[in-house]
Please model this.
Amino acid sequence: MEEEALHFHFDVDGNNFASAGEASVQVKRLLRQMGFSPDTIRRISIAMYEGEINMVIHAHGGDADVYVYPDKIRVVLSDTGPGIKDVSLAMQEGYSTAPDNIRSLGFGAGMGLPNMKRYSDKLEVRSTVGVGTVIEMEFISA
Amino acid sequence: MTVEKLAQTLNWKVVSLSEPDREITGGYCGDLLSWVMGRAESGDMWFTIMSNMNVVAVAHLTDVACVVFTEGVMPDAPVIEAAKRNGINLIACEEPTYTASVKASELLK
Model:
């Protein structure tokens, strides 16, 4: 049994690109109130924002769940989108399947998953084509 | 060098200044938002020609000291409103990104 965690749930709206990031910004505020270090908060909120953006671009939104433990934070992002065909390819910097209209907004540079890996201490991607994707990230609090 | 002092010294336009005394410790230039999130550091001035709503979220999450819109780019009113709500400093200049960042970096020396 894992020790008890504080749990926060967010619905990520898949239809509103401009509002993507609301969950990450809220999480940033919550973690700041709880006294986590600025570096830890920065890593978590950026990684989570990348995940949110991915769900909006590729999966019409999804769910974001944040579990806060005394010494670590776990972020679980799940969607029922098209899934990722080749996860190792998607993990490469610069690889992207985002459409042009997303690129014109400054996203779709193929840095989403690489940034999630860069900023998290543990990253697990479980994806089934046609079913969806679950991304689990763990952050050790500094 | 504070954000307010930077804007004053270079005669750049103040678009939104929620934290005028925020100290600038470095800089980053880029328009691809994930590159910015991967590379920009807390306290940087971020030079960009992107001016959509997501810029506010990226500035907020990366904790940059300010966003500097270059090349005469000016964000729309809803973006400015969101910046005010989230305490994000926005300034704007007419110079290209390279020229703007060279001028600003001289002031950090």
About this structure: Chain B touches chain A at residues 31-35, 37-38, 42, 50, 52-55, 57-58, 60-63, 86 (CB under 8 Å). The domain at 3-108 of chain B is CATH 3.40.1390.20 (Udp-n-acetylmuramoylalanyl-d-glutamate--2,6- Diaminopimelate Ligase; Chain: A, domain 1). Chain B has a mean pLDDT of 97.
